[in-house]
Each structure stands twice: as structure tokens, then as C-alpha cells.
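User: C-alpha cells for this one?
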Amino acid sequence: MESKIIEILGFIFLMFFVIGIHELGHLVAGLIQGFRFELFVIGPLGIKRENDKIKVYLNKNLAYYGGVAATLPVDDNPKNRKKFARLILAGPITSLVLSIVLFVCGYFFELPAEKWLLKASVGSMAIFLATTLPSKTGTFFTDRKRYQRVLSKGKVGEVEMAMLRVLGIYNRDQSYKNISKKDIELMIQDKDYNYFGLFSKLNYEYEINGVFDLKTKLAYDEVMRKMPKSVVKMMNSQLKILE
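Assistant:
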């Protein structure tokens, strides 16, 4: 019984480890390029920027248990598109390199933890494949698809950059007042990001007018019926703060 418990706990730790390294790849790539740290979560561990201070907290949001890292641009630099693309690509590359390193260490060297090293190698390779082969995992784009969208020269690429600008401006100013309405409309017109576009529009209209626009709220409620419950709960909790 004890050995089974150790196996289960070991497996859970390994999964958090390989996912955490994947997210660190995104995080470090963003920081190196001058983006500002905003959030890093893996399982119950959360680190975030709040009121310009870095805080460690207990993560209770199950939507973030699979790992999330966020760094955002501090200005509207034309080079942000390529920087963001590199940031996205850094996660899968980190997972691939980690998998190879762990496999070499576990297979070619006689180490006490070789079994765990090989398991971690398989786990890291699984993360690499899961973030590169499919286009989506559930509702959201994988890293590979997001990378392609960011570098797209058409409307899709503009939508990705509009989302990046909205997030960057909000996290810089802690307000939606300075966000471009054009960027919001670009996201609303995109079938994959219209939920976030409508969410941004509600916040923008509330800050400008002091109330939610009924038409926007109805459109938002309709779109959110198709979103995962964890995402709906998180976004609705932010809207309730305004009311």
C-alpha cells in the first residue's frame, strides 16, 4: 500500500515538474525579451504581480492547475509580434530538450533514480506532443497553432496582436479606458476570441459609462454558455467586482 502511494505521489510530482519546466520556458523567454512578469502557476503554487509587488499565493483555481505563465509587453513595440512568437515557441522547445536530457541521463547512466528520469522523459515528451500536434486542446489553441496565428500576416495575426495589446495595456494601467475600441472589435469578430473581446468591451463600457451595456452583456452571456465552467467562473468573478 505504501509503495502504491509513493508511486502515485511520485507520478503527480513528475507531472507538475515537467509542466512547470514547460511553463518556465515560456516565462524565461518573455523576461529575456523585456516583457514584464505577471503570473506563474503550477498546481497549487501561484506567483503573481499585484500592485507592482510579486506575491506567492495558494492557487485554488482548477483552470490553472495545468500550468500557466504570463509575461506581457510594456509598450506597443512593432517587434512585439516576433518576441511573442518566440515566447510561445519556447515552451515546446523546452519540453523537447528536457525530454532528451532526461532520457540520456536515465538510459545511458547508472543513476539511482533512472526509472523516474525515464518516466519524466516520457511525460515531458507527452507535453511537447500535446502542445504541437493538435491545433487545440479543448477550447484553446495549442502553442504550435498559436505560434502560427501570431506570425500570420492576415486578419488572424492582427487579432492575436490585438489581444496582446489589450492584455498589455490593462496590466500596465489596471484599466480598460486606454484600450483601443478597434482592438476590442477585432477580437469580437473572431469566433475563437469573441468571448474575450466581449469581456473586454463590458469592462471598457463600465469604466466609461458606469454601467454594463445590455446588448453587450446579452451577447457575452450567450457566448459564455459554450465556454468551460472554470473560465466562466473566473471571468464572471472579475465582472462582479465592478458591480
